[in-house]
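Standup notes
- DV: blocked on the single-chain target, sequence here:
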Amino acid sequence: MSKHYDLLVVGGGINGAGIARDAAGRGLSVLLVEQRDLASATSSSSTKLIHGGLRYLEHYEFRLVREALQEREVLLAAAPHIIWPLTFVLPHHKGLRPKWMLRAGLFLYDHLAKRKRLPASRALSLNGTAEGKPLLDQFTSGFSYSDCWVDDARLVVLNALDAQARGAVIKTRTRCAALVRGTDGWTATLQSEDGKETSISARAVVNAAGPWVTDMVNRAGLGDKAAGLRLVKGSHFIVPRIHPHDHCYIFQNGDGRIAFAIPYQQDYTLIGTTDVPYDGDPADVKISDGEIDYLLDLVNGYLAAPLTRADIVWDYAGVRPLYDDKNSNASAVTRDYVFDLDTGDGDAPAILSIYGGKITTYRRLAEHALQKLCPVLGNHASDWTATSVLPGGDMSDGNFERFLAGVRTKFGWLPEQIAYRWARCYGTRLFDIAPDAKAIGDLGAEIAPNLFEAELRFLMTQEWAKSAEDVLWRRTKLGLGMEQSDINAVRDWFANRADQLAAQ
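- DV (later): unblocked, structure below
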């Protein structure tokens, strides 16, 4: 007999994980399936920002910007280990947007939503300042404002962990191969990596498959009812750190677009993003030579020490599954989310398909999704996620620096680099990695630099990590700067535990 759930969520990106968490917290039985690893597509390929979207004001997306600005404070409180304030420096380019326009936009940005922890924008002199030093001499003034940084892939994992803690079942490497609508619910055929098929039933389905959302609509036999999907590629590259301070730059371009230069993993700078229409396989998306040239030309229009291709140490690209609002400009396509709730003739089992959305507003998206689904499922539980912390975020007053100081005191034997990274990645969950450890030797073998067996076991058993790539590029970013021999060592470690992984 197949297992039965109230809700099947297809897609283990931020929207799917957020919805699974919210639904489980309302007492619904939930199964989330992801065909690859959590956050393996769009949700690990973002610009890593929790932000209102300053440039969206030019497209009159006031509701979206307001909602996003409100969410900054909510998410800061929920996950202070993986989300933190970031100051943005906006140099004034005399040939582009005039100062009065920038000042007016920032005024709206400051006042569309209440701020508790983030400072207001201000005018900035760049002459002889740390912010001005990396820039060409012609940039003498600008503005600063605040948004937040986020470890995007870890945000997905934390939502999945909280969903699981509240009763949800999370299955990675599990493809939803077919959906059949019956009179009382849906029957789903699930396929594991080895090709084995199982069947489950669910009262309702959430299609949060991201770039594959229309594929799932087709598998459900509703292809003629699919809403419009617009795939837009966003690409980034990483270079050695270009400036000594912790602020981020936002650079305007003559085509109306912008690019960010963001401090990344202490030693690097993250540069992006692009907005390019995409019609290929979302699983094979890569940065193009044209995108690299575009970003280099853009940032070199500001930097005193220009970058070249030789400076690039890593790159990545992702596909944004946006709602097709028929805008001819890929940069202007709405980043707002759109729901398509199909209940057949009115009383058939529901399927909710999600188009678009931003990582910043994922929690509100999940909340709104459950507000639509709960009446269909006869659930009357209240909204709850706005005041609930994510796993690892339960530190006193949300004060990460105080928490980090306590970690350093308690684990004086732990190398500083590891202590900081663990505190950032895991928050208060770091105490579960090796609870009995009293010395570095208690963490097991060092499989790769600063990566010990204890952490790998923790990620494998507690966070669904099943490969070196899961660990090195999503659960952590240790792959940056790692030698190929070290990457191979992590791969070998997982290969030697194939039987254990298969049993999970």
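- Follow-up: The chain has three domains: 3-42+154-228+335-387, 84-148+231-321, 398-503.
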